[in-house]
Amino acid sequence: MAYVAIADRDHEEEHHDPQTFITKYVWSQDHKVIAIQYGATAIFVGVIALVLSAMMRLQLGFPDTFSFITPENYYQFVTMHGMIMVIYLLTALFLGGFGNYLIPLMVGSRDMVFPYMNMLSFWVYLLSVIILLASFFVPGGATGAGWTLYPPQAIMPGTPGTDWGIILMLASLGVFIVAFTMGGLNYVTTVLQARCRGMTLMRMPLSIWGIFMATILGLLAFPALLVSAIMMLLDKTILTSFFMPAISSMGADPGYTGGSPILFQHLFWFFGHPEVYIVALPAFGIVSDLLSTHARKNIFGYRMMVWAIIAIGGLSFIVWAHHMYVSGMNPYFGFFFATTTLIIAVPTAIKVYNWVLTLWEGNIHLRVPMLFAIGFIFTFIHGGLTGLFLGNVTIDLPLSDTYFVVAHFHMVMGVSPILVVFGAIYHWWPKITGRMYNETLGKWHFWMTFLGTYAIYLPMHYLGFQGVPRRYFAMGDTDFLPASAQDLNAAITMSALFVAATQILFFANVIWSLTRGPKADPNPWDATSLEWQTPDTPPKHGNWGHDLPEVHRWAYDYSVPGYADDFIPQNVPADVAPAGRDHGVEH
Amino acid sequence: MEFGLIILAIILATLLGWILKQSFNTQPWIAEPVDEAAYQAPFNAKPKLVALTTFLAVVTSFFALIMSAYTLRMDLGDWVPLTEPQLLWANTGILVAASIAFQWTRNAAVLDATARLKPGLIITGVLTTLFLLGQYAAWQELYASGQYVTGNPANAFFFLMTGLHAVHILGGMYVWARATQRLFGGSDDVEQSIELCTIYWHFLLLVWLVMFGLLLST
Amino acid sequence: MPLAVVLVLLVVGSIVFHLLSPWTFTDLASNWGMVDFTVDITLYVTGFVFVAVNLFMAYSVIKFRHKKGARSTYEPENKKLETWLTALTAVGVAAMLTPGLFVWAKFVEVPEEAHVVEAIGQQWHWTFRYPGDDGKFGEVDAERISGDNPFGMDPDDPNGQDDVLVYGAEAHIPVDKPVKFLLRSKDVLHNFTVAQFRVKMDLVPGMQTFLWLTPTKTGRFEVLCEEHCGMAHYTMRGAVVVDELDDYTAWLDEWPTYAELNATPAGDAVAGAAQYAVCASCHGQQGEGVAALNAPKIAGQDAWYLKRQLLNYQNGSRGTHEDDVYGRQMVPMSMTLANEGAIDNVVAHIQTFPDTKPASTIEGDVANGERLYAVCAYCHGKNGEGIQAMNAPRTASMTDWYIERQLQNFKDGIRGSHLKDYYGFQMRFMANTLHDEQAIKDLVAYINTL
User: Fold this and answer.
1) ipTM beyond cut 0.90
2) For residue C315, what is the domain's CATH number?
3) In percent, how much of chain C has pLDDT > 70?
4) Which class is domain B2-217?
5) Chain C residue with Cα closest to A156
6) What does the H/E/C string look like for A328-340?
C-alpha cells in the first residue's frame, strides 16, 4: 500500500498543473516533455555527428579531393562523431528520451519520483552538449584524440585540439555524467518505488527491464569515466603523472614521470564496455515489445529474456579488457577475458532465438515499426556474430584496429540501436503526438536505411580482413592493398552519403505528421501495455486522470485462447478470463 | 582493479540476487487479481531513501575505482610513499564524532525529542566544518614541507582522494544547511532530511576510514 | 513478403560476396597459420548461425504474415527448446574459443631460441635496435633522448656499446628463424603491425611490450602503425625485410654500433672548405643559393638534414626519378664526397656561413597559407624552425621557389617515391593535402612571413 500512497501524495504535492508556456514546455517537470526535450536535443547532435561522418567518408572514399578536410580536422571529425554518437546521442536518447517517456507510463506512475531533479537532468545535459559543441570554436579546435581519448596522445601536442579541445571534452563528459546520474537515480527509484498496484517486477514490459538494467549499468560504470576524466584533466593542466609516463615528445621533455597509459585504458573500458550494453539493453527491451505487439504474440520465453538481460548486465563488467588484447597489458589476461567475452554470447544468442521464435506461429503485421524491428534482428545477428571474431583473443591479433572493428561496432552499436530508435519512434509516435505518421514514407525510410547501411558495413569487414587500418586519413601507396580496395572504399562512401541523405525522409515524415497527419487512435496497434491505456492521447500531465491503473496480468497477453480479441490490456481484471483455461504451456 | 571489482561484484550480486529472487517460481503469464500482501513495494521504503541508497552505490563505485587506480599506480617505479600528516588522526576522530552526533540527532528526530534537534544539527555542522578545515590544514602542512601535488604520484593521489572526499562532504553540507535553515525557520519537516544525512555521513565516514587505511598501509 | 525475399537475398548476397570478394586476408608470411585456422573455424560456425537464423526468420515472416482471420499461437515458454538452444550455443562457443585459447597460449610464450629486435616508435617514425654480439640491449631512458642521442642510450652501460642502432624505418630479419620484437615508444601509443604476419601489439611509452613470429617468406613487408598516434598517424610507415641469413648479416653490418657512432669525429669545417668548392659553383660562395642555376640556399639549413640528403643522393633514394631534372644534377655532385667523413666536413663548413633571409619570389594568399601551414607546423615547428626529432628540416628563411618546387615534386611522386626515402615518403602524404598549385603558392607565401 505504501507505494500507492507515495504515488498519490506526489501527485498532490508536486503535480499542480503548470500554467504558462514556459513552465509547460521549457522549465517543465513533466516526464513526457522532458523526454521530448532530451530526444530532440539528442537527435540534433546526432545529425551533427552524421554530417561529420559524411565528411569523413568523403575523405576516405575520395582522398585528396576536398581541400576543406585536412588531416587535423579529419581526426577531429572522427573523435567528435564517435563521442557524440555513443554518449550524447544513443545514451541520452535511450535513457533520457525513451526512459523518461516510457518508465512512468509503462509502470503506471504519474511521473518520475523526483520531477524537479528530472528537469535539472535535462538542463545539465544540454549544458554538456553546449560545452562539447563549443570545443569546435576554441583555439586549436576540438580534440582529435579519437573517442577513446587515450593518453599520452590525447594531451600531447602531436594531436589536434590539445590546447582547449581536450579540456572542454573532459569537462563536457563530467557534466554529462552529473546529468546522467540525476536522471538515472530517478529511473531506478521510479521503477522500484512508483509501480502501480499489481505491476510486479515480472509483469514489467521488457522495454522497462532493458532501460532499468541499462540505467544500473550506467550508474555503476560512468564513475569510471569520471575518475579517468578528472585524472587526465589534472595530468593535462597541472602536470601530475597519473597516466603519463616519462616521454620525449617531438624533441621536448614535457616533464612527466612514470605514469601508466594502460591504467587509463583499464578505467576507460571499465566504463566503455558496459556502455555498449547501456545502449544495447534498452534496444533489446524495446525491440522485444515491438515484435510481440506487431506479431500479435506473447514474447517467447519472457523469464529467460529477463534473466538474459540481468546476465548480460552482470557479465558486461568483467569483459572490458577484450578491448585491450593488443594494448600491451599482461597477455595472460587474454585467457580470462576471451572466455568471459564468449560466455556473454550465450545469453545474447538466447535473446536472438527468442525474438525469432516470437515470430514463429505469429500473426505478423509488417507495419513500419515491425520492419525496423526485424531489420534490427538481421543487423544485430550480423554484428553479434562478428563480435565472436574480435572477442576471441587470437582472432583479435590480425583484426583489431582494422576496418573490421569499425564495421563490427557500427553494425552492433550503430545501425542496430538506431534501427530500434526509429522503430520505437514510429511505434510510440501516435501516443506521443496524437497523430499518425505517413506509412509509405516510413516504409521508404526503412528500406533505404536498412539496405543502405548493410551496403556500407558488409564490405567494410572485408577491407578489415585485408588489413586496412582504422583512423587512417589516407592509405596512399600501401603495397599489400590492391587498387580495388580504394574503389570499394569509394563505393562505401557512396552508400554512406545515400543513407545520410535518406534520413530526410524521417524528418519529412515528422513534419507531415505534425501538420497533416490524421488523428491517432488511443491504441492504434491494439497493444496491451499500460501506456496505450491512458485516458488521453497524448497523455496529459499526471498521465492517468483521476485513478491510477491497476494491473492484473503481464504485458504480453496477445491471442490468448478463449478470447474474441487478440489482446488483453494489462489493466483488464483477471476474472474476465474464463476459469481453468489452457495457458498453452508445455511442462 | 581487484579492489574495485570486488566492491562492484558485491553491489551487483546483491541487486541481481534480489531481482532473481523475485522472478523464480513466478509464472508471469498467469493473470491474477491484485494480491495486496504479495505486491507490497519492494523495499517498502521511502523513495528518497531508495534514491540515496542507489546514489551511495554510485559513489561507492567512484571511490572504489579511484582506490583501484591507486593500487595499480602504486606498483610502478616512480612511486615514493607519502608520510601522511599526523593531523589526519585528529581529523578522523572529528569525523567519527560528527557521525555520532548525527546519529544522536536522528534518534532525537525519531523519538520526537525536538529540543535536541537544533543543538544536534549545530554540533554536527561544527564538527564537519572542523573536519574540512583539518583536512585543509593537512594540505597546508604538506605544502609547507615541500610535498606538492605534482611532486610524486603518491602525493597526487593523496590530494585527489582527500579532495574528492571533501567535495562529497560539501555536497552533504548543502543538504544539512537547508535542513538547518528549515528547522530554524520554524518548520518541523526535517526528520527525513536528518535521516538521509545521517546515512550519508556514516557512509562518508566509512569511505574515509577505508581510504585512510589504504593511505596508511602504503 | 518483400521483407522475407529481401532477407533471403541478403543472406545469399552476403555468401556470394564472401565467396567472390577479392578483398581478403593477405598471403600469410609467418608461422601464424594457426590464427587463420581459428578465423576459419569461427567463420564456419558464425556463418552457419547467420544463415540458419536468418532463413528461419525469413520463413517465419512469409508463413506467419498477417492474413485475415489468422491468429497467433499462444505459447509463453518452451523450456525444453530453450534448454536445447542454450546447450547448442554453448557448444558452438566452446568450439570457437578453445582453438583461440590454444593459439594465444603459443603467442604469449616466446620460444627460447628467438632472436630479439627492438622496434621503437615515435611520432611518426620507426627506428630499430639490435642487441649486437652480446645479445643484450643497453639501458635506455626517455630523459636522455636528444638530437645526438635519439635512442636515449645510456653511454655508461657496457651492454649498450655493441647495440646496432638502425636510424631508419626498415628492419631486416632472417627467414625461418623465430624473432621476438621488443616494442618501445618514446612518446605516445603506437602499434606494430605487419598484415602478412597476422600479429600486432601496441607500443606503450614507459614500458616494453613484445610479439614474436617466425617469418616464412622472404620479401619486404610494410609496417603500419595501427594505434592512433596523432595528426600524422596514417603516415607512420616502415618495413620489415625478410632476408636469407647471409643477406641479413650483410645488411646488419652496414649499420654502426653505438660505440662506433660515439667514436665518429665531428665534421671539420676547415677540411670541408676544400670540398665545398664544387658546391659553391651553384649554391654560391656563402651557400646563399642561386636561383638562375636552380640551386637553393643551404646556409642556415640543419646539418643533419643536409647530411641525410647528400646520403640520399649517393644511395640513389633521391635524384633518380627521371622527371627530377635538378635532383639528377645533384647525384654526380654528391659523389664527389668520398665518404661519410667528407660529408660531415662539408656540412660543418656550410654551418659556418652567415644566414641571411633570401628575397621572396612567390606571392599568394597568406591567410590561406597560414591555415594550410597548421598541418606543417606539427613537424616543422610553428616558426618553421625545423625539428630534428621529427626529421623535419627548417623551412623559414629558405629559398621559397625551392620549397614550392619540392612540394610539387612530393605531390607528383618525383621525390619521396623511393622505398628508402622514408621521410620523403611521409612528405608525399602531406603534400597531397595541398590540392592545387595555388595552395602551394599560398603556403609558401606564408612561410616567407615566418
Assistant:
1) yes
2) 1.10.760.10
3) 100
4) mainly alpha
5) C188
6) CCCCCHHHHHHHH
